[in-house]
Amino acid sequence: MSAGDPLVRILADGEPHSGAALAAALGITRSGVWKQVQRLAGLGLNIEAQAGRGYRLATPLELLDGDAILTALSSQARASCAGIEIVSVTGSTSADLLAAPTPVAGTWRARLAEYQALGRGRRGRLWHSPYGSGLCLSLAWVYASAPRDLPALSLALGVGAHRALEAAGARGVALKWPNDVVLGGAKLAGILVDVDGDSRGPLRVVAGIGLNLAVPPALAGAVAAEGGLAPAGLDAALAGRPVARNALAAGLLGAWVEVLQSFAGAGFVAFADGWRRQDFLFGRAVTITGPDGTRAGVARGIAADGALLIESRDGLASVYAGDVTVREVA
Question: Which residue among 29, 168, 228, 243 is least enclosed by CB atoms within 10 Å?
Fold first, then answer.
């Protein structure tokens, strides 16, 4: 079921709705409707007020629907699903799952939100996404014991996300070490993985992704103000075709379930070649800012364990953590 805001559910069709009709449907005054519109505008929704006609969303919105997502999954993914929850507004879908009961080993639970107030990006930045303009989802999975190559799991999930996006018709999408999905060098999505439990098991993994479906001017401005990588929207990779949010969410979840199941036995080796084929950084001059300071060099792909290989005057080095910036070479 959809958990969209009651007012958004009415306005989602993109058609005008009079203030009187909205007030009657919601059981509030017309002044109350105006206050709700202002609240939603604060979450990034573009609601137009038209004299004599009422209110309308500037762009129709496909609200997230748990039943639709579950139906679109493969039978195997549905069989291991412990639940899909949709919320209108939350702080962080990953934080919500980390605070929730742990699923049984071999099963998964997902949480999706129309709007995240505290979504996390790289280096402590916020992940900005106006209400309904992207996908904010997290998946909790439990391993009976810690799989090998666990630090490279985020890369494997990136390969899974890339497969799902290609299956949805996206072209020109690449992977940027360690956990970004990019389009033309701009950031399309970010992946973060939280792990808790004992290495001897059980071990819970909560994987989250923030994916831009469109980039309103306000979003581009907010990211630029924080100094983050310029954002890209999936609509730019679909050649004008509409983005089906629920189908895309099902594709991402299904791909991640396959990755998590395969990773348990094979580790990162099953995904390394997939990453290398989509490696955005390969051959580019880069600067890495990490725990040990800053270093510069040329990206030479990834090692078998997922480390970034950097070539410099000192030779070839493996980097396991850091923020990577592409350098312009004169």
Answer: 29
